[in-house]
Write a structure and sequence with these properties.
GO terms for molecular function: DNA binding. This is Helix-turn-helix domain-containing protein. Residues 25-71 form the Helix-turn-helix domain. InterPro entries: HTH_17, SinI_DNA-bd. By secondary structure, the protein is an alpha+beta fold. It has one domain (2-72). 48% of the residues lie in helices and 30% in strands. It has a three-stranded antiparallel beta sheet with strand order 3-5-4.
Length: 97
């Protein structure tokens, strides 16, 4: 069962006509197009673990459920919490220099 994407931003609500099936597998290019982000942003999402993917050969594949969890409101809180932890650890490390 697919889900119509509805993304709420500070600039309004974005409705995307494409559906994402939580059990389907997507290429990073497809995810990039769905999320309307640049290639560098896509790489950053993968590198920081914000968007989980599996490497198949030389390419990454993303499960639909990972995309859906990224655009959910809980994902924003999780990302904020992770950022705050990293910020705190960085401050502690710098103070120890």
């Amino acid at each position: 069962m697919g889900i119509l994407l509805r993304i709420e931003t500070n600039k309004g609500i974005i409705l995307m006509d494409k559906t994402i099936n939580e059990n389907s597998v997507y290429t990073t290019k497809e995810v990039q197009d769905y999320l309307k982000v640049s290639k560098s942003t896509m790489k950053r999402l993968l590198k920081k673990g914000i968007l989980r993917a599996n490497k198949v050969g030389n390419q990454y594949r993303v499960l639909g459920r990972e995309i859906l969890s990224l655009i959910s409101p809980q994902a924003e809180k999780k990302a904020s919490d992770i950022y705050q932890k990293i910020k705190h650890k960085t401050k502690e490390t710098i103070q120890g220099w």
